[in-house]
Amino acid sequence: MRFSARLSAQKGNRALTYEDAPRPTRIGYIKGVLPTFVGSRHGYRPIQQPLDTQDTHQAFIALIRDEADPWDYDSQSSWEGLCTHLKDCDWPEFYDFVELIGKLLIEKEDNIPFGVEYDFSSYQKKVNALFEEDAIGWSLTEKSELHRHVPPAMAKRLHVTRAALTDRFQNARVHYQKAESYLHQHPIDEANSIKEMISAIESVAKVIAPNASTLGDAIKLLRKDSRFSQHLLDGLEKLYVYSNATPMVRHGHVHVGEPNLQEAELMFFAGVSYIRYLIDVDNTAEPPRPTQPPPARR
Question: How many other CB atoms are found less than 10 A from the CB of residue 86?
Fold first, then answer.
């Protein structure tokens, strides 16, 4: 990471950028990432890069439904045309291009020699390193889709949670994946992310307490199990109340409003913790049953 980025991080003023593609980031991508993967097939020596400049630019134009002019450069100036287009296009279109290159590389994966530095994995690492350095709030996934950036430690925790939602928790897994997608995709859908996370928790709780019909019922039944903390169940109940009382989440409301991103993030990560808590505690030994007092001596 360059000095200016480290200095900005130390001062604590590196707010993540979501709704923009700053010019320094575009230049960093054009000069530091793109040349490894895109080159011209015209000239005295054949290119080593897997993607041709002019073909890639035409694919970009088709993707964003743009007119060929003024990007209809001849083969000798195709690189300049592509770079100019990337500098001047709207910020969502720049990210369209970032995803497009990854998808084109994935398509060519079988034809790229093993161990070279211009396969998709290399591209993904370069893009994510650039975005992290420039405090861009997006990161490129294995499917070449830009999702909201998640710190590595939290990403590992999310992976563990997804892995736990199998077999009897399969229904909860569906809700969980939707909650994660609504929160990390663009545009972000805060209300549906909260709704799906509460549904995921409810599904897990109803498996553990099979006689429950709602999350509220499940919490009442879990309170009778000494393995679960009463105080933590109080917190879970508050999350449930919040989801029912907030407009645009679970029930119709006469008041106008909707949850903000901070609330959606809090609900999501709290939900992850509660899912892990419920499953892990349920996997522990059953609580000891009270023993009968010994008969009184006569």
Answer: 20
